[in-house]
């Protein structure tokens, strides 16, 4: 996997790198939290939202004539004048039967009972997969036990059943004449296969499941900013003993001129942290400003910090931020060109850059690729040959005949020497060597373990258990809207219960039993080194790279964090 050149890409693409000063980005990866999405025609309206998190309508600047040529559609949605039911203040509210909901699409292993009845029987998966399926099923069922919050904005917690549609979707006519959008009859633009609108990423190019968490923001806060920090039952070990703690979550990030974010839950007593990429006042201690990031970016930082420092080194992270705290420092940080081209007042959702908002931790297609390479048969060994030389094509046979007729001095080398030669080569050189010499036609599977570790250091599923002891936090497995909904329901239930019972009569754990916080994070895959066909892992990742958007984003964030780690080391010397 070739490393991307930074900065130069933006010059090649002709991007404007001047950054408006009102936008706050993830401090670790440089991507906005205010990500928008347009839906596919077969998705419900909750699958589309704009940069504010509200439903995505038709932008006034859309050229409908161009949309007609690109296969776009439009929908006229009914206005909503009815007073929505209040989920928080009426937890006993039950939705009408025709609006019953189904789990959100991002629960990758979820299938409805009806779907299973209609599908062909599938082959049995591993016991490990079955356990994950059960956990995901429990979580989706648990989410579905709550009625849909009609007024929630941002990433949907689930999508409503597509059956009771009260609008129609039509292709944009050739003349580009569509009804004028209004409050009473809003018009929605639905991207076609060739749409290049930059106001939202197209649902045709990236799924809800892949984008899960793209709008979720969290902050690292110094305990000195909150007075006296108290544990809340959600804290991690480093939060108990260290100088920093994580804030609650928020969906999207208000611009600097709109005030700070509101987070849920208000951990450390702070529901509105002071968030900044840039320290504008030289007379103020920069530590009072929290560091904003995606929970998934902080997870990737945590892994690398443990590898380099044996701990999170949050003092080092804060020192780096405080040292490079000017406008120029932040915007001169070397990032991928795709990021720098999108950093405008409103994030530019450029076609082909959808991977920038793909979840790098929970990647839909990756588990099946990795687990398929694990071999349970006793005769498998990493020293086995990676190739089936009995299945040669006609072209391969001709090449073999030519090599047999020639004098190949490498054939005389002992196997140990040949492997030493291969050990010093990269994947492309190995491929060329195999074409040039019969001596290297067969190579052990273990060669590709080395290539994975060197070319894909971010594939932590291939790490040994002893290299980095790490479990993702629960914040990586939930979205901000999920947490806000649960928090508000818990607060209401606490109020109701405390009004019914006198102090001392109520079990303090009753609320945890009534409304639980989200369950533990999904099972983490660890590939057994001695039982994994590393050639299959390597080639399948390469073959499916275009569909593994989250893995590409993981590589990008990993490289950014590598640069940050290097700067932390520089400022600590």
From TrEMBL:
- Regions of compositional bias (Acidic residues) in chain numbering: 120-133
Every F-box domain range: 407-451
The organism named in the record is Petromyces alliaceus (Aspergillus alliaceus)
Q: Where is the region Disordered?
A: 111-133
Q: What is this protein called?
A: F-box domain-containing protein
Q: Which SUPFAM superfamilies match?
A: F-box domain
**Family matches, as PROSITE patterns:** FBOX
Q: Would you say which domain of life the source belongs to? A: Eukaryota
Taxonomic classification, please?
A: Eukaryota, Fungi, Dikarya, Ascomycota, Pezizomycotina
